[in-house]
Amino acid sequence: MYEGLIRKYRNYLDVQDDSKIVTLNEGNTLFLRLKNLPSAIGLKNVNVYVKFEGLNPTGSFKDRGMTMAVTKANENGSKAVICASTGNTSASAAAYAAVSGMKAFVLIPDRKIALGKLAQAIVYGARVIAIDGNFDDALNMVVRLSETEDVTLVNSINPFRLQGQKTAAFEICDALHRAPDYLMLPVGNAGNISAYWMGFKEYYENREIANLPKMTGFQAAGAAPIVENRVISNPETVATAIRIGNPASWKLAVAARDESKGSISAVTDEEILVAQQLLASQEGIFAEPASCASVAGLIKKASAGDLETDRPLDIVCVLTGNGLKDTSVVLKDELKIDVFRPDLEQLRTLFH
Ligand code: AN7
Prior knowledge:
Helix 8 packs across helix 9 and helix 12 crosses helix 13. The model has no long low-confidence stretch (mean pLDDT 96). By secondary structure, this protein is of the alpha/beta class. A 6-stranded mixed sheet has the order 1-2-10-7-8-9, sandwiched between helices. The radius of gyration is 20 Å and the shape is globular. Helix 5 links the parallel strand 4 and strand 5. The site of ligand AN7 has 22 residues, from helix 4, helix 9 and helix 13.
């Protein structure tokens, strides 16, 4: 039986005590080749895959880092964890704290997180604290609090988070028997792009793979500090998960980009929502807006002719979170669903 990514990738993770592993059997997520979308956007000679991290136990990639961070907190005898979050980290921290018997304190930007994520933090039993400020303000607060209070910080500044998250790179290489040519993913606080790059490099050094991908990140245009090379004090985007103006792992992300000869560029909210719609209607996959920045970026690069398609390419888009967490973007105009009487004759007219 599969028992989570720490046991699966034990040789790459520094965990002392097996009995204290805190897991919800995260990882081992769906990896799928897209059937319709690539040709719909005019891509030939390219295999496009998605890694659907929205199928983790709390519906996002954050569970990979949280199994490690909470396991280490547990090993060290910690009784409580704390994080700032645009939503997914708080849901994940709350769940892993719940199963390990720890308290979770989560600071969220008031009214700027998707309701599904808020519901998760509440139902898992976290102490939810809304801040009249943005994610960057909340992160600043939790860093300071964790320095003076008896509570373990589980944002991605906690190095064990990235350790857990790097296993997604291992899974992709295990499936393809190589690294993809491009890894495309959204960039918010910039931990994930840094973790993937660490994972690919470790697999390369251990000769599990003989190539490395171009790390290709995408920020939302209204929240693109790395692209613009400046702190954004009032980030705005429909993709609330990546509404971040001063990423904690900024330097690591830039290093990943440069070492891999990749890129970090911006996609607009409109491009993100078009990509979300295409992915759902062409492929049957519902990912949250932030996740769809990876597909929006693929579409943008494909139409700009930025991908060298003279040879067959493997491209992996990471879908970091589940669309069910944030239905408001799809339902935002009042429901456009026609209501009919339960009249068979009338319903039959719909088929002609
Ligand atoms: C779906 O939950 O920062 O670049 O507090 O939820 O590693 O930050 C979420 C980030 C992409 C960006 N996709 O990843 C949080 C939080 C989804 C996310 C990102 C997030 P990083």
